[in-house]
Each structure stands twice: as C-alpha cells, then as structure tokens.
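User: I'm curious whether this sequence folds into something compact or stays loose and floppy. Could you predict its structure so I can see for myself?
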Amino acid sequence: MSASDSVPRVGVWLIGARGSVATTVVAGCAAMTAGLHPPTGLVTETPPFAGSGLPALSALVFGGHDTVDCPLPKRAEALAAGGVLPHGLPAAVSAELTVAEREIRPGGPLPGDTRTEEDLIAAFAADIRSFVRRGRLARAVVVNVASTEPAPTGEALPPSSLYAAAALRAGCPYVNFTPSTGLHHAALARPAETSGLPHAGRDGKTGQTLLRSVLGPMFTQRALTVRAWSGTNLLGGGDGASLADPAAAAAKNAGKERVLADTLAGTPEGEVHIDDVPALGDWKTAWDHIAFDGFLGTRMILQTTWQGCDSALAAPLVLDLARLTARAHERGLSGPLGELGFYFKDPVGPGPSGLGEQYTELLGFARRLRAQPAEGGPGGGRSGTPAHGCGAGEQQ
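Assistant: Here's the prediction. I'll summarize afterward.
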C-alpha cells in the first residue's frame, strides 16, 4: 500500500455539482493541493485548527448531482474567461476536474419526471452510496450549493429536501449552503433527529450579511440607535437568474433580515432589494444605507459598498464546512452543529449572531474536535447515537 493509499479519503458530494461554486471548489482544492495557490480564505488552514484532525485537502474526493450537462472542465474554462478562476488554472487542473466530472450523476426532478418522491430519494441515496464504495472513502459529506429555490407552499418535498433526505438515507452528514428548505422541512425533522448524523446550515454568509454581522453588534455595543437599514444587491449568473423569482428572493432575504433583528435586538426600517443583472456574471455588488442616531440625537449615516465574486467567496467556506463536518462525523457528533454558525446567515442550532462571538464558538469547536473520544464510544455524540452508514465497508 502506498503512503497516499494509507490516508483515509473523504468524499464531498455537491448538489449543484456543475455550478459556479462547485466548479470553483473542485478547481480551487486541486490548485491548493498542487501548491499552485495559497489557501486564502480557508479558515481551517489557519493555526487554531492545526491538530483538529481535519481531513487534508489532498484527501478530498468530489462528486455530486446536477440537472445540467455542461462538463466541469468546460465550466471551469468559462469561469476563467469571466475572471472568476485564474487564467490557465483550468488547464493546470484539468485531470482533477475530469475525475470529478466522472462522479457527477443526473439530479432531479426534471421536467416530465414521473418518479415519486420515494423513487427520487432512493435513487439519489444509491448514487451517494455507490460513490463512497467506488472511491473506498472513509465517509462523505453532502453539501447543497445549488441555486436558491422558493419556499415550499404545500406538503410536497422540494428538490433540496429530496437531496437532504437522500443524504440521511445514505448515512452522510449534510450541509445546506443555500437558503433552500433542505432539512428544514417538517417531514424531515424526525429523520434528522434520529439519524445520529451531524448537519449544518443554512445559507452561506459570504458578503453583505457577513458585513452586517459585524456592523450590527458594533452599533449595539456602542449604544448607537439604528433607525433604518436598507440594502440593494446587484448580481448575475445562475444565482441572479434564480433570485429574479420573488419567492426565491424572499427566502434569501429572510436570512439577511434575521441577522439585523438578532444583533440589533429589533428590526429597523428598510428592506433588501435583489436585482438580476446578467452582465455582471458571477460578480455582485451590495449597497447598504444605515441611518443611526448618535449622542444628543445627532442623526448620522453609514454607507457601505461590497463588490465581490460570489464563487470565490463561497468556495473556501464550502471546503471548510466539508472538512469540519466530516471530522464531526468521525468523532461521533450528531445533530445540528450550532458552532458552525460563523459560516451561515440562518444557522441551525443555538448560538450567537455576531461574527466575533461566532468565531469564538468556532475556535471552541476546533478544540473540541481535537479532544480524544470518550471511552467506550465513538466520542462525544450529542444524541448518544453513533455516527454511521456513510463509511467505507443544481446548478448555481
């Protein structure tokens, strides 16, 4: 057995595996593993996480589901042409992109699909189990990076919940990096609770809300009264197109507004508007206009502008979450991982809303992952149920 074969490999099963975020995740991981680029943006590569037992970037294996058929190498070339990936990177990591492309399976439901919810969940779970067996993986984490879907209006499971149910059935930890329903559907509450699996989410905090989670506590801690907080987002790409649907935009905005409500102890006037601007591609601009009162009622204004590349902001967080959740699964932790709220607009489980406090909790989680397993068990499982099942033996 070679040295590389002796290192346990960990799967990252991406929902929306041919989208911009997923493509950037795969290409970026390959680039860092090859030493072509430093791990900028990966919190798990900073000193506090040394010794936490996280899987190495070189140990990650990628696959996933998607409903589109544009191959990953071609998608990467398009992202490089748009300035999202460095020029020449798709060619440098073409082998890794091709390997991941071979592990992508058709998602659903597609137009005209006659399969029942049970049929779809069973098919998706079988794809994930086959991925684990085929790659001889120690475990796999399912991460939803597909485009935002509208909130469900009936009892039927939306696509994000079908994939989440499949993750549970395959025995895999689940991370929802989107505002979509996922495990939040009432029908999945009991299966999630009894699965013995860790899960995290919801809606990755990459730009405007990241800034809000810093500024909100600042106003509160300095005893400044915020009268109004309004925002506008201009974005293109697949996310811009999906958020042109008012129902999908409402699901996205809920997390942005919740951060203010939690950090300001009340909801100020104002709301967030999202505009689809296809010409922006994978780039986005977010403006915030904050009206607040100072000493003796003096009225003041703070305005911020955030311009960023959504995929480049999201990809390192996805890698962080996959590594942290895989390690939590290895340690036998189960249930919502509230300590990962640092990464989300709408975290599962209890925890603070301010970024500084969330970071402190994340560092505590890193120390917890370093701890030795409890005697007589897999170690530290919250529900007392060992993690199981996912071991060896849509478009963004």
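Summary: The chain has two domains: 3-204+312-370, 208-308. The longest helix spans residues 310-330.
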